[in-house]
Specification:
Elements lengths: L11 H14 L11 H8 L3 H13 L3 E3 L5 E3 L20 E2 L14 H8 L13 H13 L6 E5 L2 H12 L5 E6 L3 H9 L3 E8 L2 E2 L1 H9 L2 E7 L12 H12 L5 E5 L21 E6 L11 E5 L1 H13 L6 H12 L7 H17 L11 E5 L3 H10 L2 E2 L1 E2 L10 E5 L8 H16 L10
Parallel strand pairs: 3-13, 5-6, 5-8, 8-9, 9-10
Antiparallel strand pairs: 1-2, 4-11, 6-7, 10-11, 12-15, 14-15
Helix pairs in contact: 1-3, 2-3, 4-11, 6-10, 8-9, 12-14, 13-14
């Protein structure tokens, strides 16, 4: 069950800490089954309630999962081993189409913006936590895009904002409806917060309304939707899909709604908000990471007053605030006419690969953003075959819960002239995997 590793500890906290340490050091493997409560209690000489409490701590921290009579086991992707660490190496001479990063050549230089930010007044304890001009700019932008009025806050990126909203409104054990396939970091975050992901299928227009309704009716207390540039599929909410989702939420106003519009500034599709007069608690988040620089770690969110007040209250107790130097740098870049507008370039690169794939009869998805998602029968074999041909892509397991397999191809740095070569190699790899093996069986 555990190989040579033996769990130790007398208290629940000690037992849980020992399991986590074994996992981080490699003595315990993801997916390993844990001993039944009574068996481990007898082995350690403790009360079964102590082991039960230890397992509950591990479950709340996203380390293990329980399956009723089938017992407890380490999650396939525990919170202590996030999916983003499971990357394929990029050998010499290969092209990295797996990272999901924006093109550095389309990001503005940070030196002038940081110099301008440093010239501002010194910020001390007790000063306002956000730059008033930055909030004013975002407030006007939110209003122009049809978002409802609300309170504003600045966080350290989109994931930080999502985590703070979830902790402000939910409790461990609550279920959250999430896109599937979806953002791997978010899928790791939920169990780390003790929350349960409820997967919702996605097409090019966003989450399927009937599936969202089913997840909420089954007990999910929150819904997280990517407005545009969905990772990994590139899905973007259309006006019709947004209207259908608003209708679903109108019948379930107690749902906590989180809209992640991290694609703002690097996509050229319109924004269609979901929040409005239906749900009571909601947040819309816009991050500067993809359009300006991942290292800036600044996101601004608008939401209902109670949720934002809870977010700011907790932020005040830990990080305190987001550096005003970074906030001013974002404001400087947003107002600088020399800041690149990369949306058209990203669209051209994405469309070039989609067209090249279609010419080979391969269906890809990528309505917006930096990536193209290609459904495949065997994502591991497909990624390995492409690696042999000099292309590194991301296997879809990093982004999936219950959805079919696929591979994610980052097109942000892919020259359109190279798209036919990628498509031809992918089509050849898929055809090879479909061919019968020497014994007559297929390779997939």
């Amino acid at each position: 069950m555990l190989g040579e590793y033996r769990i130790s500890g007398r208290r629940a906290s000690e037992i849980a800490a020992d399991v986590e340490h074994a996992l981080t050091t490699g003595r315990l493997a993801p997916g390993a089954a844990l001993p039944p409560l009574r068996d481990l209690a007898a082995e350690l000489g403790v009360n079964p309630n102590t082991v039960a409490a230890a397992y509950r701590l591990l479950r709340d921290r996203g380390v293990i999962e329980t399956a009723g009579r089938r017992g407890s086991r380490v999650r396939p992707r525990p919170a202590t081993a996030p999916r983003d660490l499971a990357r394929l190496p990029v050998p010499p001479g290969a092209r990295d189409l797996a990272a999901g990063n924006p093109d550095p050549a389309l990001l503005p230089p940070l030196g002038p913006a940081l110099a301008a930010a440093a010239a501002g007044p010194t910020v001390l304890y007790g000063h306002p936590v956000a730059e008033a001009d930055l909030l004013a700019d975002y407030r006007a932008e939110f209003r122009a895009d049809g978002a409802p009025e609300g309170e504003l806050a600045v966080c350290s990126g989109a994931l930080d904002a999502i985590a703070r909203v979830l902790t402000a409104r939910l409790r461990p054990g609550d279920a959250v409806a999430v896109e599937d396939p979806g953002w791997g970091s978010l899928l790791d975050l939920l169990p780390a917060l003790g929350l349960r992901p409820a997967p919702v299928p996605v097409d090019d227009d966003g989450p399927l309304p009937d599936a969202v309704a089913a997840a909420l009716d089954a007990g999910a207390r929150a819904l997280i939707v990517t407005s545009r540039a969905q990772n990994p599929t590139g899905a973007a909410l259309t006006a019709d899909r947004a209207a259908a989702l608003r209708a679903v939420l109108a019948e379930r106003p107690a749902t906590l709604l989180i809209e992640d519009d991290h694609g703002h500034g690097m996509v050229d599709l319109p924004f269609h908000p979901l929040a409005g007069g239906t749900v009571t608690h909601w947040t819309l988040i816009r991050s500067a990471a993809k359009a300006l620089a991942p290292d800036l770690r600044v996101a601004v969110c608008v939401g209902d007053p109670d949720t934002v007040a809870r977010l700011l209250g907790r932020q005040r107790l830990d990080a305190g605030w987001v550096s005003h130097l970074l906030q001013r740098a974002v404001l400087h870049l947003r107002r600088d006419p020399a800041t690149p507008a990369p949306a058209a370039v990203y669209r051209a690169r994405r469309d070039a690969l989609l067209a090249a794939l279609a010419a080979h009869g391969v269906r890809g998805h990528g309505a917006s953003g930096l990536n193209v998602w290609v459904p495949v029968a065997d994502e591991t074999a497909t990624a390995a075959a492409l690696l042999q041909r000099g292309w590194v892509v991301a296997p879809g397991a990093r982004f999936r819960l219950a959805s079919p397999p696929g591979v994610r191809i980052t097109t942000s740095t892919l020259d359109p002239a190279d798209a036919p070569a990628v498509a031809a190699d992918l089509a050849e790899a898929l055809a090879a995997l479909e061919r019968p093996a020497p014994g007559g069986s297929r390779l997939t």
